[in-house]
Amino acid sequence: MSTTGSAAIGAVQAMYTAATQHLSMMLAACHDDTERNSVWEQYYALRQNFDDCVNRKFQEDDAALQQFEASAAVSTRQLQQIETQLGDIVKVLNTLTQAVGVGVKIAAKVLG
Prior knowledge:
Layout: E1 2-3, H1 6-29, H2 33-53, E2 58-59, H3 63-80, H4 89-111
Helix pairs in contact: 1-2, 1-3, 1-4, 2-4, 3-4
């Protein structure tokens, strides 16, 4: 049965919200425009993942989707605690990239 996939959409939204809440800190931690551009690119990708998932239908009981939701929960926690990584912009970008990757997988299930 196809449903609105509220858990999956909520997972993608939580990652985007966490990134939004910490965006100014992440940008302030950047040392140059290249790093700032990388943060912005990943942030926009998170937003695109959320936009892709809104108002879509997919299988709520899909095992792969449930695994992605668990990964999204981990990424969300990492994003919520990003201030502990602000001294190392590479770690910040890795955290953002990981969140984007999870969001892409969820969006692919939604759009597929």
